[in-house]
Automatic annotation (TrEMBL):
The lineage of its organism: Bacteria, Pseudomonadati, Pseudomonadota, Gammaproteobacteria, Oceanospirillales. It comes from the Bacteria. Residues 299-334 are annotated as: Disordered. This is Uncharacterized protein.
């Protein structure tokens, strides 16, 4: 019953978004700082936290969630490596791809395991709830409400699957059905073909909504250093990594329901999960530092690379996701 309700709600949300995109008001133009040497922190203060377009390095961007997987030319992101396999003729479908291997090998059973929090020290809710796509220590309080609901359902132990989310919602963990993997790979291939033919839209129309203009990133600040988490545009970031782009224009300080668009390490005691006692400050900071530095959680499998044999399940060593690359790109086009 709960699965049926969740599916119905998900379809209603999709329908609402489609209608809103057609009849809803357009966003106002955003300040374009992508041609200036302006970082996200300067943009935040100069424009009072309103959305801005800046230039950011793909190697400094991370997949949304606790995996710490980076983008960029040397990225081991399964989207990036699967697209490389397709272009090299190594695989022509999802079966046998690096993405299939990733979803087969990374299947944490609980939210605690996906976050890298030891079970013996994890909050009971984290031990009971399944992985969530949008849960981070600094996530919106709505994620805590969902966590509590899932944990309570799991604690009832009535033999039913205690989940209000579909199997395809949490893309950072497996398993996933074959049709979903095929759809992801087909989308990557189609986007790669479009960018090759038309060039990446460096100057998207301001009449489009924020989330349809450019890659949207959240900023992680640790002192004077910053890294980014891709909140929207995972496929674009992956294709541009394959094409050799070192940096791209991206929108920062865009409000969304997942949580704040600017996360400061020194504010950890104010993060909802810490304030509510779901995570200790040390646990929250460890997750922040891992994502910031591009390190995977404990137990994470070694990521497959195009041209290599598929790694055996549960291999624990992981090659660094990306190196810092110089600015510029051989394929920058408008």
């Amino acid at each position: 019953m709960s699965t049926m309700v969740a599916t119905t709600l998900q379809r209603c949300r999709r329908l609402y978004r489609r209608i809103w995109r057609r009849v809803g008001p357009r966003q106002y133009p955003v300040p374009d700082l992508s041609r200036e040497a302006v970082g996200p922190l300067e943009a935040f203060y100069a424009h009072r936290g309103t959305p801005c377009l800046i230039h950011c390095r793909l190697a400094d961007c991370r997949w949304f969630g606790p995996t710490g997987i980076a983008y960029g030319r040397d990225s081991l992101h399964p989207y990036v490596q699967s697209l490389r396999q397709y272009l090299d003729g190594e695989c022509r479908s999802y079966r046998g791809s690096c993405l299939e291997a990733y979803w087969q090998h990374w299947q944490p059973a609980t939210l605690a395991a996906s976050l890298g929090v030891p079970l013996e020290s994890a909050h009971p809710w984290l031990r009971l709830a399944p992985p969530l796509s949008d849960f981070m220590p600094w996530s919106d309080v709505r994620q805590l409400h969902l966590l509590r609901t899932l944990a309570e359902l799991a604690s009832q132990d009535n033999g039913e699957e205690p989940s209000l989310i579909s199997e395809t919602t949490v893309r950072q963990v497996g398993p996933k059905p074959d049709w979903f993997g095929e759809r992801r790979l087909n989308q990557l291939v189609a986007l790669h073909r479009a960018i090759l033919q038309e060039g990446y839209r460096q100057r998207a129309s301001q009449r489009l909504e924020y989330f349809h203009q450019h890659i949207v990133i959240d900023t992680l600040a640790r002192g004077d250093e910053v890294r980014f988490v891709v909140a929207n545009g995972q496929h674009r970031a992956s294709v541009l990594s394959v094409l050799g782009y070192a940096s791209v224009p991206a929108l920062v300080h865009v409000s969304h329901r997942r949580g704040p668009s600017l996360v400061r390490r020194e504010d950890c005691l104010s993060w909802p999960a810490v304030r509510q006692g779901i995570l200790t400050a040390d646990q929250a900071l460890e997750i922040f530092d891992r994502v910031f530095e591009g390190r995977p959680p404990p137990g994470f499998p070694r990521l497959a690379r195009a041209g290599e044999a598929t790694p055996a399940p549960r291999e624990l060593e992981m090659t660094p996701c990306a190196q810092v690359m110089p600015e510029g790109s051989p394929t920058d086009r408008h």
